[in-house]
Structure formats: structure tokens, C-alpha cells
Automatic annotation (TrEMBL):
The keyword Manganese does not apply. One of its GO terms (biological process) is homoserine biosynthetic process. It is an enzyme of class 2 (transferase). This is Aspartokinase. The lineage of its organism: Bacteria, Pseudomonadati, Bacteroidota, Flavobacteriia, Flavobacteriales. InterPro entries: AceGlu_kinase-like_sf, Asp/Glu/Uridylate_kinase, Asp_kinase, AsparK_Bifunc_asparK/hSer_DH.
Amino acid sequence: MNIYKFGGASVKDAVSVANVCRIIKAQETTDLGIVVSAMGKTTNALEEVIALYRNDDSRYLNKIDDLLDYHLNVVRGLQEFANDQGDECGLRFRESGIINTIKGLLESLKGTLLRNQSKNYSFVYDQTVCYGELLSTKIVAAYLNACGLDVEWMDARGLIRTDHKYRDAGVDWKKSEKAITENCTGKFFLTQGFIGSDENGLTTTLGREGSDYTAGILAYCLDAEAVTIWKDVPGVLNADPREFEDTTLIESMPYSEAIELAFYGASVIHPKTLQPLQGKKIALKVRSFVNHEAQGTVIQNQDGLVPHMPCFIVRKNMIFLRIAARDFSFIGERNISDIFDELNTYKVQVGLLQNSAISFSLCLEDKYEKIDELVKALAARYQVSKIPNVSLYTVRHYNDESVQKLASPNEVILKQFTQETLQLIVKNDTA
Ligand code: ADP
Ligand code: ASP
Ligand code: MG
């Protein structure tokens, strides 16, 4: 058994979905679980729906109609491709009823929001964003089936069982393993990434970009041979090509290194994906859906990176906080414990921290828009200064040349060196 994961970029339009079908056919494997994310930027669009809905702005309904147009457009394109492959294929796609399925799903989303009484934003979020993956998987499954691949569409909410921490649900491994091994018995199945369900059967999500993690969970529970995530890049590079020039492909690396890169923010892999795979020594392959013959990167049980080189990571739009005692006394263990309690309460992610005698510095990501509340809570007991919009650069395996490469005209607020890792916080607004 192998697990393939196709992210948003790989299914963003009809041409891309047809390419996914080609990739699957080319691998000549019959024992395959396929995980698919929402098409293109659909999850962002659904986040806009929720933002409008939350403000009682009825334009959220227009946004849903835009999503209907977008998905129907993909379906129309695929209908043409199916027709091109012969009458039988074209007929099978038409008879899948996919147009009505898409319309029905988006009507059901409207109904859910109209009936909703809950003021729990995270709960409403999960009941809404899940539609991105439901729509994409229905379309991809209909097309693969029309092309003769005979895949079974499965609802991930019956497989990935979680707690009810909406927007960042924790996996119930025991229940998930039972559900997955009992239900994923078909040789060829296709399901949604990112979504699961809680003990009451209500939809939960695993956090943004969580589809990689879904693939990892399925692979773990099914004792898969490998997980392949198909991306718009040749594999894991030594830096994000959107941010750095002259990047190099890493051919292979150990799990520990991939975990470090993901932890520091290399967005090519979701940080939680590696842990289940490492436990069972299941390889994670990152391959290009553009050049699908190339081998990409393999993450497996081995020593060191091949080739060994500095790896660069940048996280933008971070927030820098410096926390000091009001009377300039030492920041001791009690204060640090108190500060961490607050970070945990507000679910704020820390990218870097450093303490001195009288202050404690943190570089944070405001994932759930909680920073203002956190600062308010801390300011009741400490002196807090905040610098918004900073970038956090991390270089793993740095050398003199890589330190030079990071030389920036902007003000460096903080530098931290450990044996393998260099981190810099840079102010952005002086550019
Ligand atoms: P998906 O379609 O699966 O959601 P993502 O867009 O989340 O894919 O991930 C692929 C993107 O990750 C690439 O387009 C690239 O810009 C970015 N990326 C960040 N760091 C790296 C890296 N070290 N190597 C390759 N890609 C990277
Ligand atoms: N669709 C979700 C997101 O955009 C999950 C994923 O793509 O992995 O965050
Ligand atoms: Mg993604």
C-alpha cells in the first residue's frame, strides 16, 4: 500500500486534475490511498466566507456562489477532457451526477450557515472550510472513475477521529486506527485531507495545510510502504524558491532533519506529518507533479542530508515581544512559567525565544489572531513591548557564506547561534 497526497496547487483547475489522473496511471500501482486537498485557494476563499458571515454581511452568500462557479468551471473542463478520451469516458463522467453533487454540497453549506446558532468561531470555521475538500474529492473521484480507475470515495470524517479542539484537532489514534483498518479495505480509495470528526461526529480540521498530516495518519494506520506528496517544486529544496534564488534539491534526508526544517517553518511539509511515519520507518517522498518521472526527495531512516548544505527558512509576518518585569527585577523561573502559561492559553506559536537577566524575548506567529489578547494579559503584570511584522530567518547547517547571504539592509533585532542553527529576527518596515 502506498499513500499519495495531492495538494491544492495540483488540483487547481481541469488541466491539473487531468495531470493527477496521468500521474496515478503512470505509477502502475493498484494498492493506493489518495488524499486530496481543496482546489487551488478554496480554503482561503472559505475563510473569507466565514469572515463575512461573522460580520453579518450577507455577501458571504455571493462568495459561496463564486466557489460554485469555480468548481463548475473545473467540472466543465474535465467533461471536455473525458469526452476527448472517448464516448464511454465522457458518458461515465456525465452520468456521475457531479454537477448536482457540487450544487448540493454548496447548498448544504448555505443551509448550515443559515441554521447555525453557535457563537464558537472555531466550530463554525470547521463546519465551513471542510467543504473545500469535500468538493475537490468528489470532482477528482468522478474524473478518475470516468477514466477507468475505479476509486472508492471515502468520507475522511469516518476515518480520522479527533478530539473537539476545532481548527487544530488532536488525533484519537486508537479510534482512527480502528476506523481506518476497518474501512479502507478497498485497494484504491480516495479521501479528503485536513478534515476529521469529533466524538459527536461533528467536523474538525487538523490545522491549515493539514492534508500532509492526513496522509501520514493513513500511512501509519495501514502500515503503508511510503507516502508521496506531489508538489509544484522538484522536492525539498535547501530553501523556498519563492524567497531565495539558486536553490538546490535535497535528494534524501533523515526524519529528524525534515522535522527540524518543518518545525522552523519550511512550509513544504506540515510539521506533524513526520512523527507517525518515523515511528514505523515509512518513507516520505516529495515529488514534482510537473515532472513526475523525477524522484524528488526521500525522507527516511539515514544519517545526514544528501547533499549536505545550509538550508534556509524564512517566516514572515511574525511578531516580536520583549517582556520585562515592571521594576526591572530579574526574570526568573516563576515569571517564565507564568509567561508560558499565557502562551499556552492563547495558543500562540513560538518561533524563537531568548532570555536575559531582566527580559524575555519571543518571536511569535499569530495563527489564531490572539496576540492582542495575549499582550493585554501579559501587560497586566509585565512591561511588554511589541514589534509587529518582523521576519524570522533560520539557517540549518550554516557556514560563513550563508551568514553573508542573509546580510540585510534592515535592522536585525536579534541573532541566535547554536551549533547547527542560526536564527535572525529582522525588522521589515525599514526596507
Ligand atoms: P500543497 O499544494 O501540497 O499545499 P504547498 O504550497 O503547501 O503545497 O507547498 C509547496 C510550496 O512550498 C512550494 O511552492 C514552495 O514555495 C514552498 N516551500 C517552502 N519551503 C520549501 C523548501 N524548502 N523546498 C521546497 N519548497 C518549499
Ligand atoms: N485545504 C487546507 C488548506 O489549504 C489543507 C491543505 O491544503 O493541506 O490549509
Ligand atoms: Mg498547501
